[in-house]
Sequence to fold (241 residues):
Amino acid sequence: MKIKLSLLFLVLCLSFQAKTYAVIVGVEKYDGSIRDLSACVEDAQRMYNLLAKDNSKENLILLTDAAATKQNILAAMQIFKKADTDDTVIFYFSGHGAPYLFCPQNLSGGKFALWHTEIKNAFRQSKAKIKLCFADACYSGSIKITKKPSISGQAVGGNVIIFMSSSKDQTSIESRNYNTGYFTSFLIKGLNGLADADKNQQVTAYELFRYVRDNVDRASRGKQTPEMFGKFDKNLVISQY
Fold:
């Protein structure tokens, strides 16, 4: 009898001892310095639930609304330092974004902006072989543009995938009908198998990108185009199902 495997990240396939460490952030109720959103907390919870199926909850940190301050997010990302070379680290953010930054709950008019360089530095400090960053936020594509060197001129190392919901000059759209961001909706569907173009029960980086990009572009009528970049093999297996 053919048995379908639950969703697993590649690192779990490579070694039974390998682990996944993740920080999942969703902010929709802000401190008054920016308008509130409506689907970010549910999207973060969906991502957490997806990862919790096959990973220890001890290694997953979910921060939403009042708990999702800049200070708490940066403190939570210290968990990435626990990762060994065969492990995976994941950062997921759903909320407001602006050029070069994400907006934590306590944005304070920009005083406590979460700079993209700070995310890159947290990745750099981890020994994990696979590092994944997903963000459902406006202007998130600007993460690939930095005014100053973010990692002291050193390579982040390993397989690093940065998958952003929109380009540097686009907003990211929430679906009113399903209370979710277009990007996160198709990201989760893709990881669960819908992105598997060749039907081999594995989703590669390129398959995931094509599926999410094409569907978000269609759903948004061309107003939102996800971008993936980093240092990785396009045939790197991201999930199995």
Observations:
- The chain has one domain: 8-240.
- The helical segments are 10-14, 40-52, 70-76, 116-124, 182-194, 205-219.
